[in-house]
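In the previous lecture we treated proteins in isolation. Real proteins rarely work alone, and many bind small molecules. This record shows how such a complex is specified: first the sequence, then the SMILES for zinc ion.
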Amino acid sequence: MVENYGINRFYTCLTRMQREYDKYARQNGMRAKTREEFLGWKEKTKAKLIRMLGMDRMEMCNIKPIVAERVAIDEDIIREKVIIQTEPDVWMPMYILIPESCRNNKNAQCYIAPCGHQGAGKYSVAGVRDIPEVAEAIDKYNYDYGLQIAKRGYVAICPDCRGFGERRDIAKQGSEFFMEGSCYNLAHIAESLGMTVIGMNTWDLFRLIDYIEERDEWDSTNISCLGFSGGGMQALWLAALDERIKKVVISGYMYGFKDSHLYLNNNCSCNYVPRLWEKVDMGDIAALIAPRKLIIQSCSEDHLNGPRGMDNVNEQIDIIRKAYDFFDARDNLIHDVYPGEHKWHSEKLDEYLAM
Ligand SMILES: [Zn+2]
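The predicted 3D structure, ligand included, written as tokens:
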């Protein structure tokens, strides 16, 4: 048989698009020389990104929290299922893992633990191992970081982001899709409406912080966020755009856009924001977090780093480090590199929590 039915050359346009990237990318990147210049850049960039994400279109509403379930799980941890309204008629279910020591404790610290792909939303993060597929995902990615945090004496809040867990849209509601998400479908709809999945998820997490403030049971002045993979993406954007996050751990989501989202162009659509690359690279977004505490985790063989591997990661870390230098705050920026493929590493979790 003739291979490829006689086609021996392909006429593709990817090289053309790479040229476009080189011509126009990162026009608003972090190039400040002083702290004052940095602060000016930060203010303008945040406003620009909020518009690009479509967040100026999000609708305010009462949160109307419902506590739907309260069960005791292992090691004196109560697991609440709480549902809050983030926009009119848009509801976000979450598991809140509350250790005994954190009940009605104004000194208790909260960690928001957003979910990534392939973990059924909050189920993996909160460690719901009685579902076999969830147990498998936890073993593969060390995915139960919410439970890991709660076991160490902190409140862990594990929401379903849009399109995952109990928020799957019609295309993915069958039980065969339990571990999957409809973020891909949502991204197509959002894009045509001038909205983005990243913008909607970041908004929901803003509202989750509002809920923590309203609930007034724990320390709402010192809230942290920890996320892996797509959860790392949400952690990055939340911390960049909401100063109420005082510490953030981003695992498996820090690399340059050109290698990781243009060359590796089979990432889920929910990663993409129209015209984002013209303005900033990923390191610029993370630079907005300076000088607050920022821990970044990479895996040296993570395929998402792109064809140049850790070089593509380290270039972004260099951008971020410059921002921390304006505040003499290098101690607040940690970059840990582990061997192997895409995975959350909890070896230093105690250290991160104590920071
Ligand atoms: Zn997605």
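Summary for your notes: The longest strand covers residues 77-87. The longest helix spans residues 197-215.
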